[in-house]
Amino acid sequence: MAGRGKHALSFKILGECSTSKARASAVTLPHATVEAPVFMPVGTQGTLKGLVPDQLRELDCKIMLGNTYHLGHRPGPDLLEKAGGLHKFMNWDRALLTDSGGFQMVSLLELAEITEEGVKFKSPHDGSMMLLTPEKSIEIQNAIGADIIMQLDDVVHSSVSGPRLEEAMHRTIRWLDRCIAAHKRPSEQCLFPIVQGGLNAELREKCAKELLKRDVGGYAIGGLSGGEEKSDFWKMVKVSTDLLPKDKPRYLMGVGFAVDLVVCVALGCDMFDCVFPTRTARFGCALVKTGQLNLKSKSFAQDFRPIDGSCLCPTCKTYTRAYLHTLANTEAAACNIITVHNVAYQVPSVGGWWPLCWALLFLSCQTSIVLILLTFYFFLPLVLNPVNEICIVYNP
Amino acid sequence: MKYTVEAVLASGGRLGKLSQTSTAGTIAMETPMCTLFTKGGSAPHLSAVMLQRISQVPEVACMSLGSIASHHENVREFGKGLGEFSAMKDKVIFTTLHDATAAVASGKNDKGGVAVWGKGGKMKLDPQLYMKVQEAFCPDWFQALSDGDTDKTCGKKRLLKAVDRTLDFLDDIVEMKNESEVLKTSSLIGAIEGGYSVEERRRSAKETAARPVDGFLIEGFEKGHSSVDLFADEEFMTVLTETMVHLPDDKPRMMDAVWSPLQVIRAFRLGIDVFSSAYPHTLTEKGFALTADYSLPPTSQPAKLELEGSKENSASSGFYVDLNDKRFFESFSPILPGCGCYTCANFTCSYLHHLLNTSELLAYVLLTIHNFEQYFKFFARLRETGRQDKLSELEQSLARQEGGQREDVVR
């Protein structure tokens, strides 16, 4: 079992693409063996938006996320420890990953101040000043007990450059060492460091090289979901994956649009997460190959097809777009029903486009196949992104 | 719809068999029973798959027109009726006018028709439009259009009007139903009105029973679903008893009210056969979980009893517990040990408290499952107790349990 190894994670490549850096792999964690590439749905507060864990199991979901910032507040690490960890608390026996809490500090809180010690912020609950240090983040994540935990990193918006960006990169490495030192359950929880460096290739390289000196079970690529240009974003992913070792999993944080998944799989990333599929479901939007259907729109009032005729999820087997249209405007049940489809769409082997992609990768596909897939899924995005931008990724 | 009385109980109420035959076969049901409360054609908060995790789900899905009437043209275009449209193909579909849990504005009905409310606002239904909607929906049972906008404050003139109007609507509907190919096999449920006037109730019952209806829905006691406890008033019971006398025995009597198990027993003993399951939904919406004990003598230990430092109700078990309460923060036991529902088998009070505290959707999913399961179980227990002729004991036990919670049972 992975739990007994040096790291709480073992990684096995099952097949590789001969052209791109894409690979199919098995990531073995204490609570599950996860086939990658994998999309991990986000269950912020110890629940995935109205779904019970059994539904996620039925959708073949093997790993989901929890957010340290939210769980640290409510119900708090003390209770989670008493409950026997988040797995037991929420009755999820498969793998979990928690972030460090740093991203929410910076994105949610106006008054966050970052010092060498940690992230200082004003509690949204009682207004008192609090400090999230690398040690504190790991302490909370140890209490939550996820299979994969993340280092606290110094997150800056992707538009930031210059000395602040450089400082953040260096600080991220210093904080990593503090996180490694503070980690009390390395045989049960695998700590991932994070490649930072914004949109500066040189900084990313420097950062990745520093991380390589540390003994870790896998790597994350961070700071890249802040609305930067696709060409910059893909270039930074490529710079990072070029340096990261092939024999460890690579987790691209906060990325979840279908087109990004396909490109970044080709660039060698294995794990992804994003709130988008679950968030958009709450607004009545269902994901399909051509984008998303806003089921609240009148155009679906007499559309008696399922969301996606080729999808095998319970939602597509049960409901028509027309009925979901009547529900989406008024009833809470609509959110659950659409979320099931959107998770199925993103998670391997059940819905949407992903199984096709995965199967092809698994078969160690030839040059053309990934390119055909890319062309297909780029059909719409191409309107926005000129062809040469995509070429940059492949012929740098 | 076919109804037969199996036994009339000495302690009041009757046990019966209700069967519904369709092309798919015959569904046999026993009364007293409840229907499945729905919102927009689905069980509240639940997908069809999640509904399957509840045991003893009623065979009849009750769908109020408010939120769905405006979609009737889409359902007509669909062509297979409301049941299949809303993924409830296997259920007996019963369309009613109003959502028992939603407040209804008063004074909007007139001679021409009745107003129903959805999220999109008011929709005025005259008999023609009403039947157009029903033809699109093809329900197995449907309530006749009615003016139930009356209560104890209404004077004689208003009650007279309500009864007359409802009978006029019924005549129109019977005529249109006879001419309708689609609704030929649907069962028509006549509405009994008359507020608190025994005289008007009697007239409404007699006149409605003289028309070709298959069952009766007794309403018009509370305007706009005021959520007052009707049983607190002796007069309500007198009026209801008097109404029953004039209804034929071979047709089911229904009331679509938000009633706790105790209120259901009382109404059953006065002769009601078919109830709504709106009550557990109102508890769910508040973060409450049903913990009433239906065994005789009561044996279970609701979660709240195991907690220290609980407030005034700690000594007696109650009908429900409020999971928003901080005392559940560290309670790692299920809501009701031995409950057997999906929620109690998999989740703790502490987790449910956390979900409520963070306003997570799953809180309402899990509470719906528990509260429905408990309420459906109560009806099975009610039938069993009826057969054993121990209704008085069950009523007394529930009355004791209700204890200090009586005042805010509903909403």
Automatic annotation (TrEMBL), chain A:
Which keywords belong to this entry? Cytoplasm, Glycosyltransferase, Membrane, Metal-binding, Transferase, Transmembrane, Transmembrane helix, tRNA processing, Zinc
Task: Show the coiled coil region(s).
Answer: none
Per UniProt, substrate binds at 99-103, 153, 196, 223
Where do transmembrane segments lie in this chain?
356-380
Identify the residues that the record assigns to the tRNA-guanine(15) transglycosylase-like domain, covering every copy: 20-346
**Record's InterPro entries?**
TGT, TGT-like_sf, tRNA_ribo_trans-like
Q: Give its E.C. classification number.
A: 2.4.2.64
Reaction catalysed by this chain? guanosine(34) in tRNA + queuine = queuosine(34) in tRNA + guanine
Which enzyme class, named as a word?
transferase
CC cofactor: Zn(2+)
At the top level, the lineage of the source is Eukaryota
According to the record, the residues making up region (RNA binding) are 254-260, 278-282
Q: Which residues form the active site?
A: 99 (proton acceptor), 273 (nucleophile)
Residues given in the record as Zn(2+) binding sites: 311, 313, 316, 341
Cellular location(s): Cytoplasm
Q: What is its main location?
A: cytoplasm
Which Pfam families does the annotation name?
TGT (PF01702)
- What is this protein for, i.e. what is its function? Catalytic subunit of the queuine tRNA-ribosyltransferase (TGT) that catalyzes the base-exchange of a guanine (G) residue with queuine (Q) at position 34 (anticodon wobble position) in tRNAs with GU(N) anticodons (tRNA-Asp, -Asn, -His and -Tyr), resulting in the hypermodified nucleoside queuosine (7-(((4,5-cis-dihydroxy-2-cyclopenten-1-yl)amino)methyl)-7-deazaguanosine). Catalysis occurs through a double-displacement mechanism. The nucleophile active site attacks the C1' of nucleotide 34 to detach the guanine base from the RNA, forming a covalent enzyme-RNA intermediate.
Q: How does it assemble?
A: Heterodimer of a catalytic subunit and an accessory subunit.
Q: What's this protein's name?
A: Queuine tRNA-ribosyltransferase catalytic subunit 1
From TrEMBL, chain B:
**Cofactor annotation:** Zn(2+)
Residue span, tRNA-guanine(15) transglycosylase-like domain: 12-401
Predominant location of this chain? Answer: cytoplasm
Pfam families the record matches: TGT
What does the entry comment about cofactor binding?
A: Binds 1 zinc ion per subunit.
Q: Which UniProt keywords apply?
A: Cytoplasm, Metal-binding, tRNA processing, Zinc
Subcellular location(s): the record lists: Cytoplasm
Which positions does UniProt annotate for Zn(2+) binding? 339, 341, 344, 370
Highest taxon listed in the record's lineage: Eukaryota
Q: Which InterPro entries match?
A: QTRTD1, Queuine_tRNA-ribosyltrfase, TGT-like_sf, tRNA_ribo_trans-like
Keyword Transmembrane part of the UniProt annotation = no
Statement: the UniProt record of this protein carries the keyword tRNA processing: yes
Cross-referenced SUPFAM superfamilies = tRNA-guanine transglycosylase
| Assembly notes | Heterodimer of a catalytic subunit and an accessory subunit.
In the record, the note on similarity to other proteins reads: Belongs to the queuine tRNA-ribosyltransferase family. QTRT2 subfamily.
Q: What does this protein do?
A: Non-catalytic subunit of the queuine tRNA-ribosyltransferase (TGT) that catalyzes the base-exchange of a guanine (G) residue with queuine (Q) at position 34 (anticodon wobble position) in tRNAs with GU(N) anticodons (tRNA-Asp, -Asn, -His and -Tyr), resulting in the hypermodified nucleoside queuosine (7-(((4,5-cis-dihydroxy-2-cyclopenten-1-yl)amino)methyl)-7-deazaguanosine).
Q: What is this protein called?
A: Queuine tRNA-ribosyltransferase accessory subunit 2
Q: Which organism is it from?
A: Aplysia californica (California sea hare)
Protein's gene: LOC101854994
